[in-house]
């Protein structure tokens, strides 16, 4: 077994043993193989639906490195990332992810990632309705940001 995947599995197991969340663990390593951060699913203990293992590990890595840009780092996770985690991984600029189980495997034990994947594919308005309002009122802050010297993603 890959040593980093074993570590991710250990994180998942510890989180499950502590009743913190589901069977998900993740670690982030640098190109030299140094572990930068680790995370396990903390949804239950934190009452936070965003506290997935990958996001916990990304938050810790960003804080430790004092940088939101995690390019050149590698993420190992016990399961194929859900759409939320996949988005966070992309936003953090991580380019390489290794995962153990698939989203179909997660579905078999009660997780519903496919509902979100299906929504993204077909925009099922029965799942959620997105309504755009007050675009002109919000345009000012976008223009202000655009004119500033801040970095953009």
Secondary structure: elements and pairs:
Elements: H1 3-17, E1 25-29, E2 35-40, H2 43-46, H3 53-65, E3 74-79, H4 83-91, E4 96-101, H5 103-108, H6 113-122, H7 135-147
Parallel strand pairs: 3-4
Antiparallel strand pairs: 1-2, 1-3
Tell me about this structure.
By secondary structure, the protein is of the alpha+beta class. It contains seven helices and four strands. It has a four-stranded mixed β-sheet. The protein is globular, with a radius of gyration of 18 Å. The termini are far apart. The mean pLDDT is 91.
Keywords, separated by commas or semicolons:
four-stranded mixed sheet; single chain; alpha+beta; 7 helices; 153 residues
Provide a brief overview of the structure:
It is built from seven helices and four strands; from the N terminus they run αββααβαβααα.
How many beta strands in the DSSP annotation? 4
Strand order of the largest sheet: 2-1-3-4
Low-pLDDT runs? none
Can you tell me the overall shape? globular
The biggest sheet amounts to: 4 strands, mixed
- Strand coverage percent: 15-25%
Mean pLDDT: 91
Task: Please give the share of residues in helix.
Answer: 40-55%
Rg from alpha-carbon coordinates? 18 Å
Q: What order do the helices and strands follow?
A: HEEHHEHEHHH
Give the end-to-end Cα distance, rounded to a whole number of Å.
36 Å
**What class would the helix/strand composition place it in?**
alpha+beta
Count the helices. How many?
7
């Amino acid at each position: 077994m890959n040593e980093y995947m074993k570590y991710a599995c250990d994180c998942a197991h510890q989180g499950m043993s502590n009743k913190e969340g589901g069977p998900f663990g993740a670690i982030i390593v640098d190109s030299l193989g140094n572990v930068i951060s680790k995370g396990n699913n903390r949804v239950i203990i934190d009452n936070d639906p965003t506290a997935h293992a990958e996001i916990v590990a990304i938050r810790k890595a960003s804080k430790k490195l004092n940088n939101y840009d995690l390019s050149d780092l590698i993420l190992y996770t016990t399961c194929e990332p859900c759409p939320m985690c996949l988005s966070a991984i992309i936003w953090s600029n991580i380019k390489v992810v290794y995962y153990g189980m698939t989203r179909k495997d997660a579905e078999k034990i009660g997780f519903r990632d496919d509902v979100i994947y299906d929504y993204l594919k077909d925009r099922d308005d029965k799942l959620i309705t997105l309504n755009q309002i007050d675009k002109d009122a919000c345009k000012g802050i976008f223009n202000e940001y655009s004119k500033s010297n801040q970095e953009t993603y």
